[in-house]
Amino acid sequence: MASAAIKRARIAAGGPPRLALSKPEAAAALGMSLNSFERHVQPELRVIRRGKLRLFPVRELERWLEANADLTIDLSEASGQ
Fold first, then answer.
1. 3-state SS, residue 21
2. pLDDT per residue over 9-63, tens digit each?
3. Torsions phi, psi of 15, nearest 5?
4. Engineered SS bond to 26: which of 21, 30, 48, 52, CB 3.0-4.6 Å?
């Protein structure tokens, strides 16, 4: 499921849905600084390169979110097992 920030980025400025975001947009969509994005997220993402342009597919950001999401509480510990 896409985060609300990514959904908003898809329809920014009333234009067509965004399929890819610039690096600053991708960092903002994930709610993190550009520096944190570059250090912790960017190395794990596929990127579209065209000359100097770098775009990060929204689906790639969603994939990263799903792969890096943990439950807040370990259910086995919470149930006393």
1. strand
2. 655 557 788 999 999 999 999 999 999 999 999 999 999 999 999 999 999 999 9
3. -85, -170
4. 21
Sequence-distant (6+) residues with CB within 8 A of 56 are 20, 21, 22, 23, 26, 42, 45, 47, 48
- Distance from C-alpha of 35 to C-alpha of 37, rounded to nearest angstrom: 5
- What is the spatial distance between Cα 7 and Cα 26, in angstroms, rounded to a whole number? 12
Instruction: List the structure tokens of 73.
Output: 């509480």
Model's pTM, two decimal places? 0.71
